[in-house]
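Subject: 23S rRNA (Adenine1618-N6)-methyltransferase

B.,
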Amino acid sequence: MHPKNPFSKAYDLDLLIRHSPELRKFVFVNKYGNQTITFGDHQAVRALNTALLKAHYGLDYWDIPDYNLCPPIPGRLDYLLHVADLIPKPTLRLLDIGTGANLIYPILATCHFHWQCTASEVDPDALKNAQEIIDRNRVLANIDLRQQGFKNSILKHIIRQDDYFDVVVCNPPIF
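Prediction pasted inline below.
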């Protein structure tokens, strides 16, 4: 993990549970005496992500439908920390292609770095969920969410004439 990643050490699960009590039902003590969750359990990881975003970034709301990707927040933040090392500017403009229902790159880029973010998505249901996350969190109000109406185009109708982006990211898997 990147040395500046605040999630490189064990999670303070008691703190996270205080911010998001829903997490409690997924926490158990493993054979080494450590509190943990089952990281292969989609619901547990979703509850952990919700707690991390509430506790560390002040989000009031974050949720995704069961059938959507649930990204590991520490790993996604790690990517952005490396971008920040490579492009040492105080403010970057980020384009997230295929942000999905989770909107994770724009959330982390906005809350951790105060970058300006534009996110695109082709799936109307994922776009609706991402917009709900923005609408329910004032700290995310500056994220520009754009619908890609053409499945065979990635950037056409997304990048506007006056747009400029320092970095473009996308969430795997890519279809």
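The chain has five helices and six strands.

T.
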